[in-house]
Amino acid sequence: MTLKILIVLFLLEPFVISQSDPITIRKISSGYIRGRKHISENGNEGYVFLGIPYAKPPIGELRFRKPEKSRPWLGVMNTTEYRASCYWNSTATSNFASMFNMSEDCLHVNIYTNKECLTKGGCAVIHYFHGGRFIHGTPTQFNHSFLVDNFASRDVIFVSVGVRNAAFGVLNLNHKLNLSQDINSGFQDVVASLQWTQSEISKFGGNKNKVTIMGHSGGGINVNLLLVSPLTRGLFHQAVIMSGIMGLNVFPLVQDRNEGASRYLAYALGCARTLNKESYDSKFLIKDAVYVDQELLLWYCEQIFITIGYNYTNETIDVCAKEYNSSSRAIDLADNIRYYVPHFNLAERIFQSQQPVYLYQFEYSGIGDAFVSGPNIPQYVPEEIPHHAQEMVLFIF
């Protein structure tokens, strides 16, 4: 009990509204919050409200459960700095875990707006989901000045959201069993954050009828799923999918692989007694060489046709291998299958339904040191640039 009291006292301030900048005080459904003014390096003015809870902390009995609405609080909550991010695996990125404060208490939204929106209202809204293959990444990586320059200064409110990653969010056990967890708790976070935006964004000058959902990579897959989910009807009005779509997996498919991995985790933690050995059967090895491995290329082409259910022949495989039989072409094969073709097909289907759709292509090769992979990942060679996620340096990072 003492610990809980200390935490509450740390988060909340006496209810005193600053006379110098009262616009930084907002009243939302759960209580009062205090944000702050942010001046970017380019001189643009914005107002930021960071680490606002949109749900109760998913800890204890709420771990692996769908999110519940945030509790109300007394006084004024300080929302001037990022709070903890959800746990994520930094070893697959250029970051170190020590660079971030991580916690299970991480279901927060961050809002970037401006004085015009706060005083007059009616501004369009971007609701953004970060990428990271559902295992890494956090909105607390984002640069405040970039978001003020690229969104708030243009009368567009930017909302970034923290959702549970990895086992905390996408644990996949057999839904037919009597489980002590809810299914798809991470996706339920996504939906809950959108519900919060619909309910509260007007308090920050946003128009709830002008909400665009946007995501990159894994976040783009979330956007793709939101487009077809009945849970999100009326929660958004436009969508931007960036290099993230329900595309093709060209690796050998293992039945119930994700469930097998989840069962292994439960077994390792002493929560399960049985284990499927099939979950170990899939590994992929790429040789570090400057030439194209002909045998591997043929296998890769065949896996593509198997995955999409194409009635292929040896001649079909040979045509694919011939098309990509150079280092400059082979390096694009996976991207073409996973990103380009699915995005093109989706845009084509939307166009055929007579709905407005725009397909963008990022080709700028002069990224330079603006995107550094860091010590955990080999640096990209010129032939690999622009690479997946590098366009993010232009408006997010």
Please summarize what this structure is.
With 397 residues, this protein is an alpha/beta fold. It has helices at 2-11, 115-120, 144-150, 166-170, 185-200, 218-228, 257-268, 294-308, 314-323, 327-330, 333-352, and strands spanning 12-13, 25-28, 31-34, 36-39, 45-53, 76-78, 108-113, 123-129, 156-161, 206-216, 238-242. It has two domains: 2-246, Rossmann fold; 285-392, no CATH class.
Explain how this protein is built:
With 397 residues, this protein is α/β, with parallel strands linked by helices. The chain folds into two domains: 2-246, Alpha/Beta hydrolase fold, catalytic domain (Rossmann fold, 3-Layer(aba) Sandwich), CATH 3.40.50; 285-392, no CATH class. Helix 8 (294-308) packs across helix 9 (314-323). The protein contains eleven helices and eleven strands. Helix 6 (218-228) links the parallel strand 10 and strand 11 (238-242). Residues 1-19, 250-255 and 273-289 have low confidence and may be disordered. 31% of the residues are buried.
